[in-house]
Amino acid sequence: MTNTERFSLSMRLFHWGMAALILAMLTAGLLMVASLDGWQLTVLTVHQVFGVIAVLLVSARLINRLSQRIPALPDELTQWQKTAARVSHWLLYGLMFAMPVSGYLMQYFGARPIDVFGWFRLPAALNVDIHNYALFRELHSLLAIALIGIVMLHIGAALHHHFIRKDKVLKSML
Amino acid sequence: MKKVFLALLLTPAIALATESPAKVTAQQFVDLQQGDTVYPGFRRAHAKGMCVSGEFRSNGQLSAYSTATVFQRGVMPFTGRLSIAGNNPTAPDLKAPVRSFALSFAMSSTEQWRLAMNTPPVMAVADPHTFYQQIQAIQAGPAAIKQFFAEHPESKEFLTWAAQYEASGSFASETYNSINAFYLINPDGKRQAVRWAIQPTVAVAATDMQGANALQNEMASRVLAGNVVFDWVFTLADVTDDENNATKAWPDSRQNITAGQIVINSTSAQLEGGCHAINFDPLVLPTGIEATADPILRARSSAYAESYRRRATEQLTGAFKEPKND
User: Fold this and answer.
1) CA distance to partner chain B, nearest, from residue A70 (Å)
2) For residue B169, which of B106, B206, B313, B314 is within the disulfide window of CB 3.0 to 4.6 Å?
3) Exposed e or buried b for every residue in B295-311, given b needs 16+ CB within 10 A?
4) Angle at which helices B295-317 and A130-159 pack, to 10 degrees?
């Protein structure tokens, strides 16, 4: 997997598409839990629907990722840096799954069916399970904070590669 | 440079503040409601209540207006909660100015309906940020609330209601109002704005009532003796009515439809019944019912969610304590 210089077009599309989606979802999530304004319900509904879309997208993305070659990390990186890069990438994949799944489960245990634009509804428990609701509600928050942290690291690392190390890491995703 | 940037950021905020009430968050709102004394594991508002259960006997009259399965002719069980306003789960029943009835219909894995109703038919104010100021004024005392109402003429209908309202001697003899309006969606997709009231079928005078749990004890023994029945009456808005303003009642001449009877056939202490775990968020709606743009209604979901999150997490982490009822 060393002879590609750039990520494939499909991988770049997934990357930037999901980057936009994650940014929008995190922003919407942080705003809607605090807002008492009229748009809150609308944003909540859209957030839930996009969560459903996110699970489908990240599943397709993972299949795509596993079926393709990716550019190798620069040889100049030390072993721990390479390990950190790989771990952070797989953490990002893990969080991309864990965010929508934990979001769905908090709605499930709160007995709140999710309406997908009036087309269909995702099932929820018939009766509320307040303990599991609390568990997944708090987990959804903690995972969001973790995701924000790792995304910041990810962006920071990309900029570091581009401007300080002046290597091709960022360019390989453009 | 930084200062210029900050000034640019703040200018619109200042401009907005002069036009409308200062914006508050769901967290600030729930902080205000819970007050200085937090009762871990309990609702931050309407903390004291009892669980009830029973069934809605639908006569099918509303099925032409809404596709919600609950309105088809038949019987739908519910879990409910009767409560009083306030943050204290051990407060005396008779001191609270507002009584409430909440319902949860679990129709299927994809259809749920939660309702939260109160004794006043209208709100004193039309948006959550002004409501926050109203609660602040109530907490500050009689002079502050008098001044608040004087500065808010939209509270007129609420005050007229409050002046003539006499608390009855039972949860069974109160009228519980949706306050906010909702849309019923009929099979053709046509929407009709409605409000509703759960109306008593008995009159009970408030005489010789004693004890902190007077209302709960009265209700428990009443239900033991027989079912407690309410009529569920929907009021249909006219095109001239504003469904997005909770401070204005619609004229009495509007068409009313009785959808059926709400029948309570059992009660239990709130910590022993199924109602304690439920967040009665009135924006959990089934297919066939939708939210209006009423700013008060729209604010309820995130405020309820914040209160629910706090008490759910307290239960999970074991912070929850059963307070002594004395």
Assistant:
1) 42
2) B206
3) bbbbbbbbbbbbbbbbb
4) 100
Give the number of residues written for chain B.
326
Rounded to the nearest integer, the mean pLDDT of chain A is 92
Task: Give residue for tokens 């109002």.
Answer: B177
CA A125 to chain B, closest CA, distance in angstroms equals 6
Q: Which of B318, B225, B311, B308 is nearest to B26 (CA)?
A: B308
Percent of chain B with pLDDT over 70: 92
CB B195 within 8 A of CB B181: yes
**CB-CB under 8 Å, B27 with A36:** no
For B242-276, the DSSP string reads -TT-TT-PPPTTS-EEEEEEEEEEEEEETTTSTTT
pLDDT at A1 over 60: no
Please, which residues bridge with residue B314 across strands?
none
Q: Taking 90 as the threshold, does the pLDDT of residue B252 lie above it?
A: yes
Q: What is the rounded distance in angstroms from the CA atom of residue B249 to the CA atom of residue B241?
A: 9
- Which pLDDT value is given to residue B5? 52
Give ipTM to 2 decimals. Answer: 0.88
| pLDDT, position A17 | 94
Chain B partners within 8 Å of A128 (Cβ): 277-279
Question: Nearest-CA neighbor of A45 among A26, A32, A30?
Answer: A32
Measured between beta carbons, the chain A residues lying within 8 angstroms of B108 are 126
- The CA radius of gyration of chain B, in Å to the nearest whole number, is 20
Burial class from Cβ neighbours inside 10 Å (0-12, 13-18, 19+) for residue A76 reads exposed
Distance of CA B250 to the CA centre of its chain: 19
* Ordered DSSP codes for A97-113: HHHHHHHHHHHHHTT-P
